[in-house]
Amino acid sequence: MRRALRYAAIWCGATVVAVSVSWFGVRGVLREEFVDDVDVEPFLAQTIAAGARTKPPATPKPTPARTPATKPPVRSKTPAPTPSLKVMKVKGGEVAFTLGPEGCRLISATPAGGYTATIARADGWIRVDLARDGHGTGVFCIGHERRTDTWEY
Predict the structure, then answer these.
(1) Residue 20 DSSP code
(2) pLDDT beyond 80 at 1
(3) Residue 90 phi/psi, 5° resolution?
(4) What's the pTM value of the predicted model, to 2 decimals?
(5) Torsions phi, psi for 138 (to 5 deg)
(6) Closest by alpha carbon to 88, among 134, 48, 138?
(7) d(CA 13, CA 16)
């Protein structure tokens, strides 16, 4: 009986050592594969109408001092329109935009394992490319049309 317990204890010890060595061998690979350290700052794509011109800032006019008898202005209680969240899941990962009256805004771009995220923007649109080995998906957000689109290449 003691002999069987001794063999079982040796087997358990060897198994623990083997699992520990294996874990320390693959821990770095798993951490690099599944932890995403890409910092993507959200930014806003605004559109300006073709005929609209920007006005120079007006010089501030002096305002008279407020007397205690004046009432503060009453604010409107209509809520501002909330932007809608649009999440695009494609082969190369996932991209999230908000679409609102002021345009579209990139919330996150999360590439799948092995893919890279490239972000391009201009007035009125944002493009996120999720690519690997020359192939990938382009995800577009067009602000003035309030829509998203994908393109495989």
Answers:
(1) H
(2) yes
(3) -125, 175
(4) 0.48
(5) -100, 125
(6) 138
(7) 5
Please name the residues in contact with 11: beta carbons below 8 A apart, sequence gap of 6 or more: none
**101 φ/ψ angles, rounded to the nearest 5 degrees:** -65, -25
Q: How far apart are CA 69 and CA 76, in angstroms?
A: 22
* Confidence at residue 18, expressed as pLDDT on a 0 to 100 scale: 93
Q: What does 55-116 look like in DSSP terms, one character per residue?
A: PPPPPPPP-PPPPTTPPPPPPP-PPPPPPEEEEEEETTEEEEEEEETTEEEEEEEEEPTT-E
Whether residue 9 contacts residue 1, with contact meaning beta carbons closer than 8 Å, is answered with no
For 42-72, how does the pLDDT look when each residue is reduced to its tens digit (9 = 90+)? 655 554 444 444 455 555 555 555 555 555 5
21, two tokens:
């060595």
